[in-house]
Amino acid sequence: MKNCEYQQIDPQALPTPTPTPPPHHGKDTEKKKEPRRPRRKWEVFPGKNRFYCDGRIIVARQSGVLPLTLGLILVTSGLFFIFDCPFLVKHLTSCIPVIGGVLFVFVLITLLQTSFTDPGILPRATPDEAADIEKQIARLRSLCFGSDNTGNTSYRPPPRTKEVLINQQVVKLKYCFTCKMFRPPRTSHCSLCDNCVERFDHHCPWVGNCVGKRNYRFFYTFIVSLSFLTAFIFGCVTTHLALRAQGGKGLVFALQESPGSAVELVICFFSVWSILGLSGFHTYLVASNLTTNEDIKGSWSGKSGEDVTNPYSQKNIFINCCSVLCAPMPPSLIDRRGFLPTDESAQTGSADIELPTLAAKSEINVCTQGTKGLLESAALSPLLSTSCPQGKPQNAHSCPETSPALNSDPTSEFSKGCRGNHMSSSHGDTSHPRHTKARSKKCKREALHIPNPAFDVPVSPTSPDAAPDSKARSHKGGSLTPLH
Amino acid sequence: MAETHSLQDMRQQTAITAKVFIQRDYSSGTMCQFQTKFPSELENRIDKQQFEETVRALNNMYAEAEKLGSQSYIEGCLACLTAYTVFLCMETHYEKVLKKIAKYIQEQNDKIYAPRGLLLTDPIERGLRVVEITIFEDRSLTR
């Protein structure tokens, strides 16, 4: 405990950040006595998110291809209203722009809500909680192994799984080294956002955010309304061109008269299949109360011949749909706009001694959290860097989602492959390596690079390399979240 | 360690000596429920019955918050029709129950736990992961 000499230890230098690392802590300790404006919790949020409007809006650090998504929707709808609607209103009915307008507004609102809503991020464990969990685990270990061969249990990494019984089904809860807690069921850690997200579905680059418990219903509504919008525009454009080409004038003449329609036709033709497919896939997931993550991993499909069923399903399609889409909206757990306690003792309090606010409080907190804690963090950091790789795709639970509208063959083949994978999810694991070999050597290499066996990340099909757009590729590569 | 902190400690009559964490109970799924097992650290502090009653009351309130009833269906459908913009204006059912829970915890602290040197922390402040019970001890007595 030589550290307790009240020398300032820079929290930034710690391998793993404390749950609420104040970013300007170095400067603050000198200015402690001066009145400072109270800071909000979003300002010290440890995950990789960006906040706007004083914490009201949250997005992932990488916005993915959200601008592209918005651009495509706006361009296509704009061209529709400019080129097709006047003609169709004259020749058919004026309901068409009304319907189109309603769908367009719906799509835009749900897209923005999906992107800007907290997906269900779990705040990281406070140091006290983390210490308590470690103590429990050490106690259990010493009970299991006896006192002779455990050695110094304090520095051993905690066991990584805990089993619970949910509706007569054994579910393994994994320990998250970043968030320092056992993840609740259905929770997964997104490496792109560096957060544990409840009921994690996937990280969607198209919306630039994770899809989890709180924004799944927005996401589902978005893709369903987008499929209606795309199909509607496609239908209207086809009708428009057909009407123009009547009387022997020909399609070329029609396209020359209305060039915007050609653009819309191309965009809609390629997007309608993938988006309809995606909506169908998610409708299946909603009806069986599954997440994309679970479906891809084949968690409840009895892959190893065990008699496993989904413990969360209510065995009734209607009830499943209602519980996923119409359940009461859960609150955001991260309290972005709450103020930090002025003495910051509630958040960064040490495991056993709570001290009054002092200029040297930060140092005390660091040293009472322990040399033990520091050493443990140091021991864990190489593990962390391999286990939570940034942008290393291992799972394609976003695979159907990343089948971009504009890609043709690789994606459609891939989407089919993904859905094929989903259909034959009873052979979930066996299909994964096959897809991986075909898809992404990069992903497979990096998946194999992960040495930690407890992080049983299934190697799944990925689509990043299929994207022609290099920006999209890098984002998609980064978007696939290793699950551990 | 004790020597270096003794100056600060002496200033305080009471200081926290321990925190007990009541973990979540996942046996009925992902619903927010807490374990009613009585922690050993509270044995000489509070009555087991009292503690279990508090936790059960909390569990019931959380179950009410997450209940799938006709009201939540109507709210959900209405929200969907308005592209979920109602969530921006209206307080959701869950939030209303959370306020109720906060009040209940405050009440329990005032009436039962504070006189025994304990403090319940609202689980929402810990991300609905744990119920944190802080045990205060009068240092002047222990030293």
Explain what you see.
The complex is a heterodimer of chains A (484) and B (143). By secondary structure, chain A is mainly alpha-helical. Chain A is built from 16 helices and 10 strands. Chain A has helices at 25-30, 66-91, 95-116, 127-145, 216-244, 251-257, 259-287, 292-297, 317-325, 345-348, 361-369, 371-387, 409-423, 428-439, 441-449, 470-479, and strands spanning 49-52, 57-60, 121-122, 161-166, 169-176, 181-182, 188-190, 195-197, 202-204, 209-211. In chain A, strands 3-8-7 form a 3-stranded antiparallel β-sheet, with no helix packed on it. In chain A, strands 4-5-6 form a 3-stranded antiparallel β-sheet. In chain A, helix 2 (66-91) packs antiparallel against helix 3 (95-116), helix 2 crosses helix 7 (259-287) and helix 5 (216-244) runs antiparallel to helix 7 (259-287). Mean pLDDT of chain A is 69; it is low at 1-5, 15-33 and 345-484. Chain B is an alpha+beta fold. Chain B is built from 6 helices and 3 strands, in the order H-E-H-H-H-H-E-E-H. A 3-stranded antiparallel β-sheet of chain B has the order 1-3-2. The interface between A and B is large, with 54 and 47 residues.
Compile the SSE list and pairings.
The complex is a heterodimer of chains A (484) and B (143).
Chain A lengths: L24 H6 L18 E4 L4 E4 L5 H26 L3 H22 L4 E2 L4 H19 L15 E6 L2 E8 L4 E2 L5 E3 L4 E3 L4 E3 L4 E3 L4 H29 L6 H7 L1 H29 L4 H6 L19 H9 L19 H4 L12 H9 L1 H17 L21 H15 L4 H12 L1 H9 L20 H10 L5
Antiparallel strand pairs in A: 1-2, 3-8, 4-5, 5-6, 7-8, 9-10
Helix pairs in contact in A: 2-3, 2-5, 2-7, 3-5, 5-7, 6-7, 11-12, 13-14
Chain B lengths: L1 H10 L2 E10 L24 H18 L4 H12 L4 H4 L3 H21 L4 E4 L8 E9 H4 L1
Antiparallel strand pairs in B: 1-3, 2-3
Helix pairs in contact in B: 2-5
